[in-house]
Write a structure and sequence with these properties.
The protein is an alpha+beta fold. The protein has 11 helices and 10 strands. The protein has 3 domains: 109 residues, Butyryl-Coa Dehydrogenase, subunit A, domain 1, CATH 1.10.540; 112 residues, Butyryl-CoA Dehydrogenase, subunit A, domain 2 (Beta Barrel), CATH 2.40.110.10; 152 residues, Butyryl-CoA Dehydrogenase, subunit A, domain 3 (Up-down Bundle). The structure holds flavin-adenine dinucleotide (FAD).
Amino acid sequence: MNRDFTLTEEQEQIRELARDFAERELRPRAVEWDEKQAFHSEVMPMLAELGFLGMLLPEEYDGLDLGMLTYLAALEQISWGDASVAITLSVHNSLPTQMILKYGSEEQRRKWLPAMARGELLGAFALSEAGAGSDAASLKARAERDGDGWVVNGEKMWVTNGSAANVLLVMVRTDAPGERRGAHGIGAFIVPTDTPGYEVGKKEDKTGLRSSETVSVAFNDMRLGPEALLGEPDKGLIYALSSLEGGRMGVGAQAVGIAQAALEHAVAYAGEREQFGQPIKDFEGLAFKLADMATRVEASRGLLHKAARAWDGGQAGMKLSSMAKLFCSETAVWVTSQAINIFGGYGFMRDYPVEKLFRDAKVTEIYEGTSEIQRLVIARSLYEERAAKG
Ligand SMILES: Cc1cc2nc3c(=O)[nH]c(=O)nc-3n(C[C@H](O)[C@H](O)[C@H](O)COP(=O)(O)OP(=O)(O)OC[C@H]3O[C@@H](n4cnc5c(N)ncnc54)[C@H](O)[C@@H]3O)c2cc1C
């Protein structure tokens, strides 16, 4: 692995630690996990031991407090090893833990965050429903007041870490049936998965990321005490969407890791494969393709790291995070597709590594907001900036 001179010594060491782990523990297992759709449970204690489940959490909650840039540099390497493991870490580190950190009471933080940072509890995030994806404000699952607590009913779709998770951040309606208030009528609740009335449903059979569990969950008269509510009862969607700012950077790092892996495989193969009596790397048409792939991967990483530095400097903003997610994910899909072309017919076969990378890349354009939604967020920021100038 080349030294990244834009990182500090300490950041580079953590990046190398993640790369070593990916090379030793993830790469040798990834194909079998993919074939069997097996959750990568055996590596979770090792990742916990390294502190990778608390990278963004402050030390007072047993986290490593490494900052966004260091976290993303490590996450890219984990994704280089296996993108399914990367999304498990990304969801846990960016969504439920960050929501509790930012919007939870001190009691909630003390109760949940140290165990989550140590990896004793795995987190998940349940916003999407069968009829509410991009239009999350139209979700239908609901929480009704019951004394000083709540009774929750409804169903969530596509919950990453679903059946492996111990605690979910769940967004449900808290507005009254006759007075729906759209985005302002939704609360966020901390739900332990052993709560009576909580049920894990169908596990999805996915194109890619097959060792990441994606399940539906149902809430059947699930009773929650007042301590389960995060912040204000009508601000849950706002909390969830704001946590996606970090989440989208995590997906960006996942995408860069996939693209980097595809690039490396393509360069190696182009040096080995001969046609017309010479290595295919010596055909200019193919060399140009490799050059374009490498340039786009580097540009993606640069944009992602800019977004991370802005976050670490307290200048976080949805525009940069959406740009990074958009560019990194579209790069990953393009680069992995080009890698298949470079492998020719072998690229289309399961015996070679690039078809899995292509399958894993595709979803980075979809979850935590599709590419179309990222473009809307970016365009809206441009209009707001223009309006602010007067
Ligand atoms: C593997 C996987 C894991 C996931 N994990 C989670 C999770 O852990 N938690 C969770 O809550 N959700 C999760 N999701 C759900 C994911 O976030 C949604 O799939 C995503 O937000 C898109 O919603 P949708 O699938 O309903 O598509 P839709 O919203 O129905 O979109 C369909 C198409 O219409 C386009 N579109 C929609 N609105 C607009 C618009 N205004 N302008 C232009 N185009 C538009 C979209 O871009 C897309 O091309 C996961 C999904 C997958 C596939």
